[in-house]
Amino acid sequence: MRHSARVVLLLLTTIGAVRHAHGDTPTLHVERTGETYTVRILQDGEVLLASPEQGLWSIATDWKDRWPANWVHASPTRIEHRGDWTILHGELKTPSGTWQVRDAYRAEGDAIRGIRRFTWRGSQPTRRTTLSIRFQCPGSGAGALLPGILYYGNPSGRKSGRVPVYSGTPGEQAYFEEHRFPMPYACLEWAGASERQGVAVHSLPSPVPFGKRADQWWSLGLTGLEDGTELALLSGPCASNGKQGVIKATQRGFIPYDEAWLDVPPGGIIEKTFFLEAYDVPTEGAGFQRPTRTSLALFAPSTTRDMPTFPEIIRAKYDFAQTRWHETDTMAGFKKYPDRNFFVMGWCGQAASCGYAFQVLEEELDDPNAQSMAQTSLDFIAQAEFYEKGFRTWYDCDKQQWARRGNPELLSQGQAMLNFANAIRVGRKQGMDVTKWEAFLRRACDFHAKKILSDSWNPVSTNEAFFIAPLCQASELFAVKRYHQAAEKAGRVYAARQVNMREPYWGGTLDASCEDKEGAFAALQGFLALYELTGQSKYLNWAAHAGDVALTYVVVWDIDLPAGRLRDHGFKTRGWTAVSVQNQHIDVYGVLIAPDIYRLGRYLKRDDLKDVAILMYRTCGQLLDPYGSQGEQPHHTNYAQHGEFQRQLQAGDIAGVRGNYVETWTVFWITAHFLNAAAQFKELGVPIWE
């Protein structure tokens, strides 16, 4: 041991992580200063992460104003090496007793694994205590990404006052419960002296023992410093938007979350596993891509042995789809709601979706009525009324007229156009009468191509990226060059605005104006369509970027759930997708994204993406009831959007919300997307019926 200590003193202790594909080799240095040790993560010889000056270990011994207080700090005084592990030992003395602390580090994949062990050696319980894992970097600013929660400050959602925000100003804090994270990491990128750099802290999420609150978890996030940023794990405290002791709990905002401390008995032991990364960032806005891939590798979420199969899901969804079929002498289609007679194209209604899916899945559905429903439903909604903003997407069956409700719903128009384009492409091969469908799609493409090609076109959000894919297909279906030109212009505009993450993908839903996975999906879908149309590598690069943003909303781990409806079903969260930075439940929309993630994996030669795509589809079949129905909103975290759960949270009571489930909101997209995605997977050659 003495010899090792001399080696550490003279040569440092260096742990090198496995070299990343970009050539990055982060190393961990343990340096001796006097009688103590400091920990640093270096990239190309430059310190990008380091233990704080106060010491490697920090524990708060009190709680004031909804936040930890009276912090005490210490550093290791002894080092040892066991196999691949470098182990640091020491004590942290508080007014009420002594903590024994141990850190262990080793290289693992593209990161450094750390395990911190706290042992309370006091003779009496230690009250109002907060534990921490803190590392600081020289970078600052808003270039942080916390998956599902915070995207480079959430600039588009900021104006609502309903979403987490972060600018990186000194003293600003952003800490959230670990179970809120689809991918449990926090990262930051910044412009270094010669190149862009990035760091990330990953967590192995867990409830914290001895918590004051029921179902108390570690929190993960960051704090702006005068000369950098601190990335940290805390044993419960949460903060956001300039307020300490709050959580994002409802669609409209935040509620108090106080007394998140620990009361640890004598001999109490708490351990926490984390991972540290430091890396070069090739271009602005790419700083999250490295930790996103690392998170996929760390959690390896893709096993589907315990998930429903494609045939089980398809049969159940097809049976349920027929309960929404509505036909009279004058109309035919799929209703958005179970009890209200509206046909709605796009977004939640997806009335045009089955016209494509039923054709492709004809053999699997084994129902002669399937083709008839595809034909008659598309024939009817192809009569949609056009007006100065495109075409109307809502049809009121009772009033027998195209309703102004919900318009213009540009993203819904784009989704409907893609449904028609796919139906025409397949229908031509199968001998369907596509005359009405073609007339409708031509008219819609003429309208939106003209708008996009005009000098005045300046889309508000990423929602109009949903026009790119149908315009690409229509350019080939009808051999119309201006559709191709419009699609390429839209692609260039969105890439210029959003790939650098100064304006992260947003606005892909209709009930929130903020950063969301649907916006990222719209861009992914559009960029992939352009790559397939042109073969130009820039479009694949853009698709990879948008795809990685979409993946940050995908849950890569099975979140431990308290007693409730989800635990009743043995529910597994991996593969589900968080909605947006405002609506923070999980939903089944990922099934629609999944085929494009699979396509992206095929083009990038990444089997991990193809495996995740299959998981994303199959996992979302877990909550199907005997009727083939399921609701939209499982509560994996302290968030609820509707009904009694929302009213309970607004009153400040979180008990019983996490782990529960809202199944009353059963709009048709929850059925149609499964069938649409299954058809896409079949066309991609995935053996969905084996």
Structure overview:
31% of the residues lie in helices and 27% in strands. The strands form ten sheets. A nine-stranded antiparallel sheet has the order 7-8-9-10-24-16-15-12-13, with helices on one face. The longest helix has 21 residues, at 410-430. Helix 4 (354-360) crosses helix 17 (669-683) and helix 10 (481-498) packs across helix 11. The chain folds into two domains: 2-299, Beta-galactosidase, Chain A, domain 5 (Distorted Sandwich), CATH 2.70.98; 310-552 and 588-631 and 666-683, Alpha/alpha barrel (Glycosyltransferase), CATH 1.50.10. Mean pLDDT is 95; it is low at 1-14 and 17-23. It is built from 17 helices and 35 strands. Strand 28 (386-387) and strand 29 form a beta hairpin. By secondary structure, the protein is of the alpha+beta class.
Helical residue percent band? 25-40%
Per CATH, what is the topology of the largest domain? Glycosyltransferase
Strand order of the largest sheet: 7-8-9-10-24-16-15-12-13
**Mind telling me the CATH class of the largest domain?**
Mainly Alpha
Terminal CA distance: 59 Å
Shape: elongated
Uncertain segments are 1-14, 17-23
Based on CA atoms alone, the radius of gyration comes out at 26 Å
CATH architecture of the largest domain: Alpha/alpha barrel
- Structurally, how many domains make up the residues? 2
What percent of residues are in strands? Answer: 25-35%
Number of DSSP-assigned strands: 35
How does the major sheet shape up? 9 strands, antiparallel
What is the overall pLDDT average? 95
Number of helices: 17
Structural class: alpha+beta
